[in-house]
């Protein structure tokens, strides 16, 4: 569930994915009901799709082929 803001300043190539990952973790049952930290919930496997998208976005910043294909993420 990407969130787009028109008045939001640019925060880098993967800022949107990073923000959505943080929001997903903070809204998960692991944090709200069990009282664990977002880092623990991320290690346990919550928000896997956004975690993978964030990883791919960060990896594409280092990939030389991304000059032609463009960065992944939003």
Which helices and strands, and how do they pair?
Elements lengths: L14 H13 L1 H4 L5 H7 L3 H15 L3 H4 L5
Description:
This protein is mainly alpha-helical and 74 residues long. The model has no long low-confidence stretch (mean pLDDT 83). It has five helices and no strands. Helix 1 (15-27) runs antiparallel to helix 4. It has helices at residues 15-27, 29-32, 38-44, 48-62, 66-69. It has a domain at 15-60.
Q: In a few lines, what is going on in this structure?
A:
With 74 residues, the chain is mostly helical.
List the defining traits of the structure above.
disulfide bond; single chain; 5 helices; 74 residues; 58% helix; Cytochrome c oxidase assembly factor 5; 0% strand; Cyt_c_oxidase_assmbl_Pet191; mainly alpha
| Beta-strand percentage range | under 5%
Could you describe the largest sheet, including whether it forms a barrel?
A: none
Total helical segments? 5
> How does the overall form come out from the CA principal axes?
elongated
C-alpha Rg (nearest Å): 14 Å
Helix content: 55-70%
From the N-terminal CA to the C-terminal CA, the straight-line distance is 12 Å
Low-confidence stretches: none
Average predicted confidence as pLDDT: 83
What structural class is derived from the secondary structure elements? mainly alpha
Number of strands: 0
Helix-strand sequence: HHHHH
GO cellular component, one term: mitochondrion
InterPro entries: Cyt_c_oxidase_assmbl_Pet191
Function: Involved in an early step of the mitochondrial complex IV assembly process.
Protein name: Cytochrome c oxidase assembly factor 5
């Amino acid at each position: 569930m990407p969130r787009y803001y028109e008045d939001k300043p640019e925060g880098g190539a993967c800022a949107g994915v990073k923000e959505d990952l943080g929001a997903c973790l903070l809204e998960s049952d692991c944090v709200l009901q069990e009282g664990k930290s977002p880092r623990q919930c991320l290690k346990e496997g919550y928000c896997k799709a956004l975690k993978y998208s964030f990883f791919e976005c960060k990896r594409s910043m280092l990939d030389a082929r991304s000059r032609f294909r463009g960065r992944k993420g939003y």
